[in-house]
Specification:
mainly alpha; two-stranded antiparallel sheet; single chain; 385 residues; two-stranded antiparallel ribbon
């Protein structure tokens, strides 16, 4: 991770502040170098443990109050292992310093369940900070407490950005949502079931859920997103692009929602050009702008590595396409997105005349979603080759 990205992370800023404060305190108290070292170690532990505590609280609240937990990721950097526990995918990465999860509504009442899960998350984080203060007589405890406390206050600040929702937003922002956003939340369980059916390869089952969404909530963003995903699952990239363009042109969305829509528009646009369903001269510049605008609005750039890899492939840069597609497959949590990235990786290897590597990438795609349109087409191309 680049240094400028680290400076934008609240946990890193809190670690620096905590370390400076601890160093000043220890110097004032005259505890010597060992006390300073223990204080710094405590500050580091505090900024790692506090977010993990709030995330564990959110997972516990989700289990208690009936939210859907789709994916739990422990650690950062390289993927070490991944397995299925019921409907939940658990992934372990090489650097054990973070805990994240994909959590969403599954049953009504949606708002109340999410608020209660947020409350459990806040209580877990506050308990962790209070626990650190009980050890404040020791340099290590002081470091942990001085680092964890401002970080917990930051987490209680209501924020909702692409790919991230703060504990404070669940507690204070969620109950004050205006009507359109509240309707999106209420429609989320049915949308989640449509996505789950797609993940399982049940296109007809997903279509039934989408049809019900269209009947009940025809104009919601969740409904349009499900319709777009269904078109993509059928290889109908042109229809998906046109539907999403029409939705974007008639919607005054906030930055977070717009970043998701633009990221989807970019990926679909590149796929439509690759499949020769729409003219590249018209669509490629539009899709590139959508990609840039999604990043500018806060969508994490590394999460779009697979999309950028497909663009590199379209522009005749197979080495760059392979590099980016591999990053996307490594960091994406959705099995369908990972399968798509492995399909891009296979096609990039084919463009480099390395069919053995292409077969290896395709095999990984077929392990995830053998029915996915780009996986099927890649298999056909490779078989002919």
């Amino acid at each position: 991770m680049r240094a400028q990205n680290l400076l934008s992370r609240p946990w890193f800023v809190a670690a620096v502040i905590g370390a400076v404060v601890v160093t000043a305190v220890e110097a004032t108290l005259g505890t010597g170098g060992s006390g300073v070292a223990l204080g710094l170690l405590g500050a580091l532990v505090g900024v790692i443990a506090l977010p993990i505590a709030t995330q564990l609280g959110l997972l516990l609240g989700s289990a208690l109050f009936g939210l859907r937990v789709r994916h739990v990721v422990f650690g950062a950097m390289r993927r070490v292992a991944s397995w299925q526990a019921g409907r939940v995918t658990i992934t372990v990465r090489a650097l054990p310093v973070t805990l994240s999860a994909e959590i969403g509504p599954w049953r009504s009442p949606v708002v109340l369940r999410c608020w209660l899960a947020g409350l459990v998350s806040a209580l877990a984080g506050i308990a962790a900070a209070v626990g650190a203060w009980t050890l404040a007589e020791l340099p290590f405890g002081r470091g942990a407490a001085l680092a964890a406390t401002p970080l917990m206050l930051y987490k209680l600040w209501p924020r909702r950005a692409p790919m991230a929702t703060s504990t404070g937003w669940l507690l204070f922002g969620l109950p004050r949502m205006p009507r359109p956003e509240r309707d999106e939340f209420r429609a989320a369980p049915m949308a989640a079931r449509a996505y789950e059916a797609l993940r399982a390869g049940d296109v007809d089952g997903s279509r039934a859920h989408v049809d019900e969404l269209v009947r009940q909530h025809p104009d919601l963003n969740a409904t349009v997103s499900c319709r777009v995903s269904l078109h993509e699952a059928c290889g109908e990239y042109a229809q998906a692009c046109l539907l999403l363009l029409d939705h974007l042109s008639g919607r005054d969305a906030g930055p977070r929602e717009m970043s998701y829509l633009l990221a989807g528009m970019a990926g679909l646009g590149f796929a439509a050009v690759e499949a020769e369903q729409l003219p590249p001269d018209d669509l490629l510049p539009l899709a590139k702008k959508a990609l840039d605008d999604a990043i500018r609005l806060g969508y994490p750039e590394f999460q779009l590595s697979g999309t950028k890899g497909l663009l590199a492939l379209l522009e005749g840069e197979p080495d760059e396409a392979a590099r980016l597609a591999a990053i996307g497959a490594e960091h994406n949590t959705s099995p369908l997105s990972r399968a798509d990235d492995f399909a891009t990786l296979a096609r990039a290897h084919m463009a480099k005349q390395d069919n053995a590597a292409a077969r290896a990438a395709l095999a990984r795609a077929e392990d995830l979603a053998p029915w996915w349109p780009r996986v099927v087409e890649t298999h056909q191309r490779l078989h002919v080759a």
